[in-house]
Amino acid sequence: MGLWARLKSVFGAKMSSALDRMENPGETLDYSYEKQLGLLTDVRRGLAEVATSKQRLKMQAEKLRQQDTKLGQQAEQAVLAGRDDLARVALERKSVLQPQIQSLGQQVVQLDEQQVKLQDASQKLQTRIEMFRTQKESIKAQYEASSAQVKINESFTGISKEMNDLGTSLQRAQDRIEQMQARSSALDELIDSGALTDYTAQLGGGDDIDRQLSLSAGNDVDRQLAAMKLQLSDNGQSQLESKE
Q: Is the dihedral of CA 14, 15, 19, 22 positive or negative?
């Protein structure tokens, strides 16, 4: 397949898909219904024209028959009056009218047949249009119900998606909280073990130098206490020796 053929095929598919989305079955059915009503109107108009033409031909044929009768009477009167020449003229004119009367009669018969066909077609078309109208309204109702159902389903789909997104956000928040709690516990363990310095304790109790000095002061007290115990022990021993 050539490039142009492929482009044409793709373009046709895209256009068909776009038209499917744009097409409203209800509007399409209403348009078809209006077209059929227009066709029925044309048939009825044609039927009226045929009836009018047939009536006109009948009137013309009747006028010719009246002339034919009159010419026959004139020919008889001319013969009675001994005017064969006038009788011959009347009969000649009468002979000309006969084919015309027959032709008009045949045309009237043809128009009668055409009128019957148009009447039958009009009745059948009207019946078909009435059936189509019933089907059209039923299909439109089904389409509207289906469209409403689709909109409802789309709404539920959107809600479900939002709930899924919300659940995902909540799960991420929960995971974040657990990570922060685990990190806090790990830091507490490191501080307790001495691997990390708790600088927050320095805010109320001085820095590390102050703590070392405090430890040194504590050691001096211990030395003083030991010296006092030693002195008291020596004094007690001296008193015992003097008594002896």
A: positive
